[in-house]
Design goal:
- With about 290 residues, the protein is mainly β.
- Helices cover about 0% and strands about 50% of the residues.
- It has no helices and 26 strands.
- The strands form nine sheets. A five-stranded mixed β-sheet has the order 19-26-25-22-23, with no helix packed on it. A four-stranded mixed β-sheet has the order 4-10-9-7, with no helix packed on it. The protein has a four-stranded antiparallel β-sheet with strand order 14-13-16-17, with no helix packed on it.
- It is rod-shaped.
- The chain starts with 13 loop residues before the first strand and ends in a 10-residue tail after the last strand.
């Protein structure tokens, strides 16, 4: 009882004949065995390596030909598959994996093939900026992260502003105190992430003070009228223009003699934002009243 493994590399059934001869002494007998070899079904994948991003799905597109319909599909392993018997299931694996497709045709002939799904990490979009005072451009730096691969493209966008490719941007607020800014980053495998944050600048003290005009020998009372839209003032500095100074908020000062002097007031906020304003203070001479009589 011999065994054989016939081969049919074509697409149609192949009939093969085997001659059986038996001998007993001088007598012999012959017979012919007719063997029909059915072709195996052929499997072809649209892609044998499918790249997806973390959290994404991909269709395991394939086509089957040859053999005899109907076909039956069986996928393994079941990890991340939407179904194991659908012709084209959805794959959503958490890590790299190789799927095996086993197709059985109407003759019961079986063919298998494999497809690999590579799961690529997504970047984590992030950006930061230092404390910036109003009126100055904000230096925004991309601090996005990626486990492997590399970030190859960046897109910054905000109302009235778009730029591409830069890792560091000088973002102008155009008189606004806060503006939403969006960063989109993509890797060399096409995986991306998006982050929107509100970029803000810190208020600068709005300096003002009331400058008195006084007579020689009188004290000048300086009324500090400074305001700050947000935060608080951490320090004051007065320069009276004659080499003397103080850090009192509302100082009272007496000049030694008459004349005009430039008084300078500086203030600094808790965010480090500072400004200075100057005004002219005048001390007038006292009239020398005289009278006579005759």
């Amino acid at each position: 009882n011999p065994r054989c493994r016939p081969i049919n590399a074509g697409l149609a059934p192949d009939t093969q004949f085997f001659l059986l001869t038996t001998n007993r002494g001088v007598c012999s007998s012959r017979d012919t065995v007719r063997l029909v070899v059915m072709p195996l079904p052929a499997i072809s994948f649209n892609k044998y390596l499918i790249n997806i991003c973390e959290g994404a799905s991909a269709s395991l597109i394939n086509s089957v030909s040859g053999g005899k319909t109907p076909y039956r599909w069986r996928w393994s392993p079941a990890t991340g598959l939407s179904d194991t018997v659908l012709p084209i299931p959805l794959a959503n694996p958490k890590s790299d994996i190789r799927y095996t497709l086993r197709v059985t045709d109407g003759f019961g002939c079986v063919k298998s093939d494999t497809v690999r799904v590579a799961v690529n990490p997504r970047p984590v979009a992030a950006f930061q900026w230092p404390i910036t005072c109003a009126g100055r451009p904000v230096v925004v730096s991309d601090s996005s992260r990626i486990q492997r691969d590399s970030i190859t493209s960046r897109l910054w966008s905000s109302p009235g502003f778009d730029t591409f490719g830069l890792k560091v941007i000088n973002f102008r607020m155009n008189g606004r105190s806060s503006v939403p800014l969006t960063l989109m980053v993509y890797t060399n495998k096409g995986c991306g992430d998006t982050l929107t944050r509100v970029v803000d600048v810190k208020a600068i003290p709005k300096l003002a003070f009331n400058i008195p005009y006084v007579c020689n020998g009188d004290s000048s009372r300086f009324a500090n009228q400074t305001t700050l839209d947000s935060g608080f003032i951490t320090g004051w500095s007065w320069d009276f223009g004659d080499g003397k100074s103080t850090t009192i908020r509302n100082p009272v000062y007496r000049y030694a003699d008459t004349g005009a002097r430039t008084v300078m007031l500086s203030a600094k906020s808790n965010n480090g934002c500072a400004d200075t304003v100057r005004k002219i203070s005048r001390v007038y001479p006292v009239p020398n009243a005289k009278f006579g009589f005759s």
